[in-house]
Amino acid sequence: MTTSVTRFALAAGVLFSGAAEAQTTVYKCVDAQGRVEFTDTGKKGCKALDLPGYIPAPPERRGPAPVAPRASNQAAAPAASTPSPSNFPRVDTSQQRVRDDDRRGILNEELRAEEAKLAGLRQSFNNGEPERQGNERNYAKYQERVAGMRDDISRTERNIEALRREIANIK
Fold this sequence. Notes:
flat; 3 helices; mainly alpha; 3 strands; 171 residues
């Protein structure tokens, strides 16, 4: 009984969390032993769940997408990975350039702050031998703080790399 409740709670948490947006129908299946299973494939004896707030994905198209005829004087537009709705707002290139410049400036500020933070962390880390504090008479406490410092340095280095990648991806 507990495992089925746990499974249901886990499935419900995944289904209703904002991070996991299901794009398929979810089925609840009960086998002969009374075990409950949630799946995205309908099997015999499974019932589709009516989830509040769930908007199913549109049915998949088979075959190539229809191509609209184009006037000969019209420039070819780059193919988009996902089509935009016809009423989706467009941004002209000069406004987008300004937005990209603002974004680049913000990311560069964040990068400078992370680099300064890394320099401070490395200085206090002192090549793996930071000064012991008064409350660290127990060596395990000292080791725990040093491990935390290593983690902080590693996390900050990853942040710097991510910021550099993001800046490089700006057009």
